[in-house]
Amino acid sequence: xxxxxxxxxxxxxxxxxxxxxxxxxxxxxxxxxxxxxxxxxxxxxxxxxxxxxxxxxxxxxxxxxxxxxxxxxxxxxxxxxxxxxxxxxxxxxxxxxxxxxxxxxxxxxxxxxxxxxxxxxxxxxxxxxxxxxxxxxxxxxxxxxxxxxxxxxxxxxxxxxxxxxxxxxxxxxxxxxxxxxxxxxxxxxxxxxxxxxxxxxxxxxxxxxxxxxxxxxxxxxxxxxxxxxxxxxxxxxxxxxxxxxxxxxxxxxxxxxxxxxxxxxxxxxxxxxxxxxxxxxxxxxxxxxxxxxxxxxxxxxxxxxxxxxxxxxxxxxxxxxxxxxxxxxxxxxxxxxxxxxxxxxxxxxxxxxxxx
Length: 356
Description:
Mean pLDDT: 83
Helix content: 40-55%
Shape: globular
Order of helices and strands: HHHEHEEHEEEEEHEEEHH
Distance between the termini: 23 Å
Strand order of the largest sheet: 2-3-1-5-4-9-10-11
Number of strands: 11
Strand content: 15-25%
């Protein structure tokens, strides 16, 4: 007897039909905007359709084997095949359910990474710089494009403010779990007594919106120009190239000082759009799920999410109680094991909530 389908066949057929339509339409798309939109949808649907195909093959295989049970010469072979396929079916069903979970609309977007030191003075600024290097190395490992948009250094080489643009496959889908307060425990370079200090830095990962999604009227912003400066306040050049944009309705302030004044203005507007987009998304999330107090990947920066303990060589992610004694590797950009665990926990949570 063939097993009951885990997911309604009509739903699966509609997904496959949509994928085939998008694939055909890609070849005839007019304009860069349509090509980009279809490309994103195609990339999102492709792994889902692959899981549907694997699941259908498993069901078809069971049905074919069952049709051979009435043949005495084939019965033993058919029973063995049915046993094997039925044992594999729960895994196929779970993979299909995971693939069918609703996607965050921003998952396929590039990301804006912001890092700021928290409590801990100069040591916090040095730790913020370590985090910036960690994420840059992680981006390099995954083949992502990492571009520094703004960096304000402290006297000892730490970071006061840091903003980067990261582009590549699955950037926001994976890095969104990094938003929050990161805590470090170590003996600071500035500490002569050898005592362990605790300091912190805040990481924010924001999805980059399309320009058309976030309209910013000219009267809502104030633009100030300043001299670019490096560590210790030394002037990098003699022109007023740094740009600071203040969004008057929200009070959000964005600074860019890496390029020419014209480029800095464009960069600052890019970051401002990302912050306003994330604010809009957060407000919508709060309205939909006010009862959820702790959700992995929510980007709630009011609570510590991770501790990096240098004397013990360990990293602990407090959201999923994961501890790894591989701190040098993690600081070197090897974050996949941590992020994979966060993704799996998030998927399990959403599966339970969906009732699948």
